[in-house]
Design brief:
Number of helices: 7
Structural class: alpha/beta
Distance between the termini: 32 Å
Largest sheet: 7 strands, mixed
Number of strands: 7
Strand order of the largest sheet: 2-3-4-1-5-7-6
Radius of gyration: 15 Å
Helix content: 25-40%
Strand content: 15-25%
Length: about 190
Amino acid sequence: MDSLVIIAGLGNPGRQYEGTRHNVGFDVIDILYDRYDFSSPKRFGKSQVVTGRIGDRRVVMAKPMTYMNLSGEAVRELVDFYKADAESSLIVINDDIDLEPGRLRIRLKGSAGGHNGLKSIIQHLGTQNFIRIRVGVGGKPAPDADLANHVLGHPGKADREAIGDAESRAADAVEMILAEGPDRAMTRYNVK
């Protein structure tokens, strides 16, 4: 089984967004870059990509450079170029405010759940059926707090540590999905 897998970590380009809750997808891609002997990232269309192997699987790891709300444009471009089947060959990694910091949830399909990056991908692919790894970043501090400020903000020390641990486990989950399939990864990582 040597089909190519596209791994897209969602985030926003630019220094001001580094380390924010919304950029956990980029952070997980960086962890995977560091674990494997990939070439330097290159610009491909609307994404920054590297290609290589994780185990015996060929992968394209991508950071869409479109900003979060237009992530679907970049992901669709990659799916089309590589003639990939999104339902079996796409893994999307994103932040999730409905999960407490440090929690992971792997799903094979589902709605966007209010996440604009996922909403864009679903819209551009025309399907909700693709693997996603959701990394918990915690909800707004107060019901009337601004959501954009929350997701574009930097977490405090305790949350940062929990999120950093979850990012590392999300990279582990990608490896398990590639090696053993998503069902095994869901059993392992979808725990409290």
